[in-house]
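Bench log. Compound arrived from synthesis this morning; before running ITC I wanted a structural hypothesis for how zinc ion sits in the protein. Inputs:
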Amino acid sequence: MKTFKTLFMIGIATAMTLTACTNDNPLLQQSDLPYGAPDFSKIQPAHYLPAIETAIREQRENIDKIVKNTEDPTFDNTILAFEESGALLARVASVFFGVVEADKTPELAETEKKVMPMLTDLENEITFNRQLFERIRYVHDNEMLTGEKQKLTEEIYKKFVRSGALLPEDKMARMKEINLRISELQQQWGDQLPEATNDAAVWVETKEELAGLSEADIAQCQDDAKSRGGQSPYCIVIVNTTQQPVLASLDNRELRKRVFEASIHRADGTGNHNTFALVSEIARLRAEQAEIMGYKDYASYSLEKTMAKTTDNVMAFLENLIAAYKPKADAETKAIEEYARKTMGPDFELQPYDRFYYSAKMKKELLDVSDDEVKPYFNIDSVQQNGVFYAATRVYGITFKERKDIPTYHPDMKVFEVFDKDGKPLALFYSDYFRRPTKRGGAWMSEFAKQSRQRNQLPIIYNVCNSAKAPEGKPSLLTWDEVTTMFHEFGHALHGILSDCQYNMLSGTDVARDFVEMPSQFNESFAVIPEIFDHYAKHAETGQPMPADLKERMLKSINFQSAYALGENLAATCLDLAWHMLPSTEIPTAEQASNFEVEALKKVGLLDVQVPPRYSTSYFNHVWGSGYAAGYYSYLWTEVLAVNIADCFASRGALNPEVGQDFRDKILSRGNTGDLMQMFADFTGMEQPDASALLKARGL
Ligand SMILES: [Zn+2]
């Protein structure tokens, strides 16, 4: 994934803006290190709060200067001045949040609590600053601009307009009221859903019922029971998705059913928890906001700023995908049912809680490949240097040199200097791959500094993962998932490293949500190209390549019975859109919500008991609790873009440097400086993404 920061934290590092800072806080001084890298040998936790306070004050003063300027507004004195106004804050905040995510000590957690409301206040203050907006509007409406200047002006102007800057006072007041109410409701959602999921845990009396689980998993159930009050000896904890991983192993069908039902009914009012009232109100308020802004529904309002742009484009894309998917799903279900009937008899009817169980058995019978078997071939350093870096060298001509002299915030990190094909310095890249208690879960890319010609700043990019670190002297080994994750995150890193844009705000990965995952997903494709794979997948002790038979089984197992994963994603995507493509007067009430879900799935042909949505309405956190409303389709959309790009490479030579240069020129270097669909079309020669390619890529 790619982490997003708030819009106005757009950075600059000019020494002139630092005149007010005469103290010795290293965050407020221009770093002497190459690329202006943060000097972690000097930065202490106590430096962050005062630095952020100073930087916020500085941005306020800079905005004030723009507003009080008596000259007519121009690009330079307004747009550019605004773009640069939060430079110091961006620089300080980038370092702070980078460390907070990856090494959150109690002291930093305390600072974070103080910092967040300060940043929200500042953002609100800027968004609703009418005088500032009037100047921006004047430039937007009057100055003839082209290229990046025009794009920057347009982006800033639109951001204000989309927040309601053109609305009359009473409507603006209503927008603010709605924002406030939505954040209250989301707060309640954030309290209720974890509680509901927690309460859905399934209690188990005897070890015999848990047959099929490993001893380690059973011990985990025992620990979970203890930590939850111990009302029974064992407890199966429910995870956030509809399907529960434990269903692949549990032999006891009755228990499988209990687990599945606990999952799907966790928050739909059949038990103690019901989130439908929250869902209904959030959906209605969003629809109202869209109407105030002049759109027919929330999805139309939200999609305007994406690559897809309209609900028609997204629906056409999904309809193609659904049509191609359905026969594959039916065949997969039939194959699993027939397999189950071999042991359960000819009358056995496959239920959704049986699917993972029999699919896992089939997979073991046909392919039998375990993590333990493949991990010795994935030494973390080899994957990074002989795989991830090697692919980038082959395709883009860039090279890497480790810099042990540049300080990091943790000793497990490595720093590399990246050079262009002509030997010119291009970027700094930090990798922080090992898990530790102070790091949050998952994997991500972000930056300490974005590329900007305006600021004379080269990019300082980092990747963070959560792999296990081997004891001293042993090689750290990765699972296949972790290998592809490393390629994925480095795809984001390349989007930052190869950026060549004038303005900070438009550079690197600051692109729409339905585009940003494309370079990363595309970069995963290099992990399996034979010339790359054979170059990094070597036994950690013997140096031997992975045996052909093991390699074949492993690659086949990746896409084994993959229709399900596509179907659960499609169903969730369509639910998200169904809720956000209604006028405010037609939003279902809490009582109607369950039925609405069934009808919505039926309408798009995805009502299939065997393939329920990955998240059902009542526990769909992406759309009710976080920022993915009308945006869940982005996962499939960017995957299709990535597959189309990979096919384009394959047809011209997957490792052909000429194609690499073309991709770099037309997409990776360009940040958000052009129309994203046009960039895609320029490189691929296709007018629209071709969804059918996705099925082939998923082995369907
Ligand atoms: Zn990503």
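What the model suggests: The mean pLDDT is 94. The pocket of zinc ion is lined by residues 1-2, 488, 492, 517, 520 (CB under 6 Å).
ITC booked for Thursday regardless.
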